[in-house]
Amino acid sequence: MTTPDPTTPAPRPGLSPRRARQLRIAAASVLLVALAVVLVLRLASRTSVLVVGVYGLAMILCGVVIELSRNGRTRLGTWLLAAGLVTALAADWLLLP
């Protein structure tokens, strides 16, 4: 009978780093497509440079989050994705006519 080695770390619960990166990339990609659809719908109803600016910056942020996730910066990507989504929704609600 073997006893467990006390120096060996216990397996961590939760997602593996690879799986977390894949989920973050998928979430940012879905958000990117959703923002593109909303941008097209907004432009169909009214043409405004502010609309293009708000949704364009949010789409760029999604691309940045995808690159951060590919490079292993999933926590930073998560925070940026959440902050960017909240900012885009607030700008849409407060700034856009």
From TrEMBL:
This is Uncharacterized protein. It comes from Streptomyces lavendulocolor. The lineage of its organism: Bacteria, Bacillati, Actinomycetota, Actinomycetes, Kitasatosporales. The chain crosses the membrane at residues 25-44, 50-69, 76-96. Keywords: Membrane, Transmembrane, Transmembrane helix.
